[in-house]
Design brief:
With 315 residues, this protein is α/β, with parallel strands linked by helices. 41% of the residues lie in helices and 21% in strands.
Length: 315
C-alpha cells in the first residue's frame, strides 16, 4: 500500500477485512461498527399512525391538531427504524497531509473511512457523508448497500489525490476556482454546520480528523449534533506530533502552528521535554472537550498499520 496516495482498489480490500473482523467480533469490541444503542432522544423513530389517547401514553406524543379538530385527545404512534443513516465527515485539510512514519495522516484517514463504510454496509445501514479539503468539499446523501460505500470511497480517492497532486502554485490558483460540483474551502466548523442540516435525527456520525482546527465554533456544532445523534470522534495523529525523537548532532526541525514558525532541537533534552509537555496539554484538552459533550474519542496513529491498531482495540 502506498504511503502518500490512495487507490480505490486498496479501499475496496477493506470489505474483506471487515468480514474477517466482524466474524471475530473485533469491530464490535473496538466499537467500530457503532452498534445500535438503546434509543436516545428522538433517535430512530418514524411516524406510524394516530390513535385515541390511552392512559400511559407520553403526553409529548399528543397530536394537538387532531385533538383540536375532533375534540378528543389523540396520540401519535412511532415505529423504530430498521436502518439508520450513517455519516462520515472526513477532514482532508492541509494539516492532514503530513507523515513522519508509515503513511500520511490523510492516507490513514481514507483507509479508516473505508473500514467504517464497509462496516456500515455489512450492518445494512445507509452510508453517506461530507469530505472537506482546502479547495473544495463533497456532500453525499446516504445510500443503501454497496452503492453508498463506493460513492463515498470514489469521492474520497478523487479529492485526496487531487489535492496531493497540486503544486504550491496550483494551490494558489485553485483557491479561486469553483465549479458546479466543488465548493470553496470549508472549515471544520462550517462542515459540521452543514452536516447538522443534512442529517436526520438519530443518525450515527463519525468525524475523522486530526482536530487541529477544532475551534469554538466547531465545538459548538459538535455539541448541537450530539444532542440528537450518536457522534464519534476519530482522531488521526502522527507520532512526531506527540514527541520528538532523540537525535544526536546539531539538527533543527522546523515547526509551525499555522501562524507562527520556529525551530526545535531534538538533540536537546529540555527541548524534547518542552515539546512533549505542550503536546500532552493539547491532547488532554481534546479529551476534555469530547468528554464534556459525551462523544466517544478514538485515536489512530498514522505511524503503523490501521488493522493492527483496530485488532488491538478489540482485545
Amino acid at each position: 500500500m502506498s504511503a502518500i496516495d490512495v487507490t480505490i482498489k486498496e479501499l475496496q480490500q477493506y470489505s474483506y477485512q471487515t468480514n474477517s473482523l466482524l466474524a471475530r467480533k473485533t469491530l464490535a469490541k473496538a466499537r467500530l461498527a457503532g452498534g445500535h444503542l438503546s434509543p436516545i432522544k428522538g433517535r430512530g423513530m418514524e411516524f406510524s399512525e394516530c390513535r385515541q389517547y390511552q392512559p400511559g401514553d407520553d403526553i409529548r406524543s399528543i397530536d394537538w391538531r387532531i385533538t383540536a379538530r375532533t375534540g378528543k385527545t389523540y396520540s401519535k404512534l412511532f415505529s423504530e427504524e430498521k436502518e439508520r443513516p450513517v455519516y462520515v465527515l472526513l477532514d482532508l485539510s492541509s494539516s492532514m497531509y503530513f507523515g513522519s512514519q508509515y503513511r500520511l495522516k490523510s492516507v490513514q484517514a481514507c483507509h479508516l473511512t473505508a473500514l467504517l463504510a464497509w462496516a456500515t454496509k455489512h450492518k445494512s445501514d445507509r452510508v453517506g457523508g461530507i469530505i472537506i479539503g482546502d479547495f473544495g468539499h463533497k456532500e453525499l446523501k446516504p445510500q443503501r448497500q454497496q452503492r453508498g460505500v463506493m460513492q463515498l470511497l470514489s469521492e474520497t480517492v478523487a479529492l485526496h489525490n487531487a489535492q496531493l497532486a497540486l503544486s504550491q502554485a496550483d494551490r494558489i490558483n485553485a483557491a479561486n476556482v469553483t465549479n458546479a460540483n466543488t465548493a470553496p474551502k470549508e472549515s471544520l466548523a462550517s462542515a459540521l454546520t452543514r452536516l447538522r442540516l443534512l442529517c436526520k435525527t438519530g443518525s450515527h456520525i463519525m468525524v475523522i480528523s486530526d482536530f487541529l482546527h477544532l475551534d469554538d465554533k466547531a465545538q459548538k456544532q459538535l455539541a448541537l449534533l450530539k444532542r440528537h445523534n450518536e457522534v464519534e470522534a476519530w482522531q488521526i495523529y502522527d507520532p512526531l506530533e506527540l514527541a520528538l525523537p532523540s537525535i544526536s548532532g546539531n539538527v533543527r526541525l522546523a515547526v509551525s502552528n499555522g501562524q507562527q514558525h520556529g525551530f526545535v532541537n531534538p538533540s536537546n533534552a529540555k527541548s524534547r521535554q518542552k515539546y512533549q509537555q505542550h503536546a500532552d496539554i493539547k491532547q488532554q484538552a481534546l479529551r476534555q472537550i469530547m468528554n464534556r459533550y459525551g462523544i466517544r474519542h478514538h485515536r489512530i496513529s498514522s505511524g503503523e498499520s490501521l488493522l493492527s491498531q483496530i485488532k488491538g482495540k478489540g482485545r
